[in-house]
Amino acid sequence: MKRPVLIVLLLALAGAVWLAARGCGADAGDPVERLVADMVPIPGRDFRMGKYEVTQAQWEAVTGKNPSYFKGADHPVEQVSWNDCQAFLEKLNAHPVARASGLVFRLPTAEEWEFACRAGSTNDFCRLADGTEITYATLDRVAWFGANAARRPRWLKHLIDIAEELVDFVHEVNWRETISHQPVGRKEPNAWGLHDMHGNVCEWTETKQTDSVEGECRVFRGGCWGESYGLCMSSLQSWLPPSYRGYELGLRLCATPSPAASESHAEPAESAESGSPAGGAGERSEPEGVSHAESAEPAFPGDIPARQNESSSPSFSTP
To answer: What are the beta bridge partners of residue 293?
Structure first.
C-alpha cells in the first residue's frame, strides 16, 4: 500500500474515533427514559422543553420505526409530518416511563418555542449562560446550518478533499461529501441548557396558521442544516400543511405537569395562532418533486424549500 493512501486511511480512522468521542450521550441508556429525563424547566413559565431535538433512536423506541432520510441513532428524526408527531405523542404519553414522570408531552406553541429559544436574548439569536448574545458572526457556536453542516470535521475535510478530487478525476466518480443534520447536542446550549434551537432541523409547533393556498397549516421554527444563518433567527416562523414530510423537519418536545393533561391538546391562544409575539411570519414553497400527500418522498437532498419571512424584536418580557 502506498504511503499517501495509508495516511488518508489513518486520518479517516482518526476522524471516526474523534466523532465517537464527541458523542453527547443524549441516547445513553433507554431512549424513552433519556427523553423524559432531558426535559428542562423554563424560567418564569410553567412548562418544560426538551434539552435536545427528538432523536431517531427515541422515535424508533416509541413507534418501532425510523422514517428519517439521513440515518443516525443520535441524529434528530426527520421525515415526520405534524400528524406523525401527534401519533408519536399519543404513544409516548401512554408509555409507562412517560406516565410515571407526572408530565404530559406535547409540541410547544410558536410563542413558547421562541421564548425558550431566546433564553433572555433580545437580538436575532439566543443568549448563552455567560450572558453572551449570539450574533450572525458567532452562530457557529450554537447551530448547524448551511455553512458548517458537513458530516466530517473541518480538519479531516480539508485533508481528504485532495483524495476525493483524485478519485473523481481518475475513476469519474462523484464522491461528494453529504451535507445533512448532525448528532444532537454537539453545539453549545443556550442559557437555559437547550441545544440546537437554531439549525440542525426545523421544529414543528402546535400553532396553526391559515394559508391562502394551502389552507390550515402548522408553524415550524428554528432553521435547519441546509439553510443560511438568516433563516435560523429566533423570531422567524414558517408554516406547512400538517401532512408535509421533509428531511429538514423534526420536532422538540414540550411538557406540562399531568394535571394540565386536559389542556395539552387545547388550541393555542389567538395571539399565538396569528404569529409569534415577535411578528415573525413566513412561508416555504414546496420543494420540487415533493407532494403534500402523506406518502410523499422528499426531493433529493439539497433542494431545501425556500421561504419568505419577516421578523422584528420580541414584544414579550424576559426574566
So the answer is: none
| C-alpha–C-alpha distance, residues 307 and 304, integer Å | 9
Number of domains in the chain: 1
Q: Alpha helices, DSSP H only, in 192-265?
A: none
Please indicate, yes or no, if residue 43 is contained in any of the structural domains.
Answer: yes
DSSP letter assigned to residue 76: B
At position 254, the amino acid (one-letter code) is C
State pTM to two decimals: 0.71
The 3-state secondary structure of 144-184 reads ECCCCCECCCHHHHHHHHHHHHHHHHHHCCCCCCCECCCCC
Residue 91, classed as helix, strand or coil, is: helix
Q: In the prediction, which pLDDT does 288 show?
A: 33
129, amino acid identity = A
Range of weakest confidence among 53-62, 83-92, 167-176, 292-301? 292-301
- Chain centre to alpha carbon of residue 202: 5
Mean pLDDT of all residues in 24-29? 54
**pLDDT mean across residues, the chain:** 77
Q: Classify residue 174: in a domain, yes or no.
A: no
Residue range 89-117: mean pLDDT, rounded: 97
Give the 3-state secondary structure percentages of the chain, helix then strand then coil, rounded to 5: 30, 15, 50
HSE-CB for 89 with a 13 A CA cutoff: 24
In a domain, 264, yes or no: yes
Contacts for 243 with CB less than 8 Å, ≥ 6 apart? 81, 82, 83, 292, 293, 294
> Which residues partner with 218 through β-bridges?
208, 240
pLDDT range class, residue 81, cuts 50, 70, 90: very high
Domain range enclosing 65: 29-148+188-310
What's the pLDDT tens digit per position in 296-316? 444 434 445 545 454 533 433
CATH number of the domain that 259 lies in?
A: 3.90.1580.10
- Pair type for strands 39-41 and 249-250: unpaired
Residue 196 inside a domain? The answer is yes
